[in-house]
Amino acid sequence: MTRSPFDLTGRRAVVTGAGRGLGQAIALGLAEAGADLILLGRAASQTSTRDRIAALGRDVEIVDLDVADHDAIAHAADQVNRDHDVDILVNNAGIIDRQDSADVTRQSWDRVVDVNLNGLFFLCQEFGRPMTRRGHGKIVSVASLLSFQGGIRVASYAASKHGVAGVTKALANEWGPLGVQVNAIAPGYIATDNTTALRADPDRSRAILERIPAGRWGDASDIAGAAVFLSSAAADYVNGHVLVVDGGWMAR
Ligand code: NAP
């Protein structure tokens, strides 16, 4: 029987921040497509995702990591790379800090950039090295509409997510010739803990909904298909792309 180009059976995927929200939906989507998983993030928050993936019959393990801890990244990646050939890296872990730009502290700025951009780049490096040596691999990062737009009261987040788009294209240029595709997903407005404050503000919530042609907030599961696609052989000729999955927001 011919293998579907979307089939991930036998592939090993690492997903950061897979305990809730988009990371959980992406990890489950990859597992449903056949992949075995490593959930890389704070161990305590990922047990329920691990149990749901195990129930699908996939191999799954948790590796503890705070992605803002630079030294810990190399240590965790060594541990994973020693035991596994990682085929897919999904950089999902991310935080947002909503504040007037005039009030943003250095500490808050650094924390957002450390998690969303610095951690992401060095994870690409740690898992990208063996991928380029083996001559194949997929890196998928979770960017944002704020990789293209400025947003409101989220300067550190917008800066970090513009950076994610830049890193994605830079690595695609370097590693494409070595058989590794590096892409990103830019989710629209998705109902997760990341957007609780927006959904709780009636004016912002209404303004956002009015611009979304789909007429609803996204669900975390809306992002899983794009992650499976970009992780699969179906996307072998897709490189350096930031794929918007936003219910049509950017078309307005
Ligand atoms: P979420 O529900 O707040 O989940 C954030 C995830 O990141 C959690 O799993 C969290 O782990 C993990 N994380 C945060 N800091 C971490 C750290 N230092 N080390 C390890 N893991 C860490 O938000 P989400 O909406 O699913 O966000 C996931 C990604 O999508 C983020 O990159 C976000 O910027 C992006 N995104 C979201 C939206 C949206 O509308 N929701 C739109 C565009 C982009 P814990 O559970 O341990 O805290």
UniProtKB/TrEMBL annotation:
Residue ranges annotated for the Ketoreductase domain, each copy included: 11-181
Stretches assigned to coiled coil: none
Gene3D superfamilies on file: NAD(P)-binding Rossmann-like Domain (3.40.50.720)
Pfam family for this entry, one: adh_short_C2
Entries under InterPro entries matching the protein: 2-deoxy-D-gluc_3_DH (IPR011286), KR_dom (IPR057326), NAD(P)-bd_dom_sf (IPR036291), Sc_DH/Rdtase_CS (IPR020904), SDR_fam (IPR002347)
UniProt KW Cell membrane keyword: no
Record-listed E.C. numbers: 1.1.1.127
Keywords of the record: Oxidoreductase
Entry's Gene Ontology molecular function annotations: 2-dehydro-3-deoxy-D-gluconate 5-dehydrogenase activity
Record-linked SUPFAM superfamilies: NAD(P)-binding Rossmann-fold domains (SSF51735)
NCBIfam families: kduD
Similarity remark: Belongs to the short-chain dehydrogenases/reductases (SDR) family.
Family annotation (PANTHER family): 2-DEHYDRO-3-DEOXY-D-GLUCONATE 5-DEHYDROGENASE, SHORT-CHAIN DEHYDROGENASES/REDUCTASES FAMILY MEMBER
Protein name from the UniProt record: 2-dehydro-3-deoxy-D-gluconate 5-dehydrogenase KduD
Gene from which the chain derives: kduD
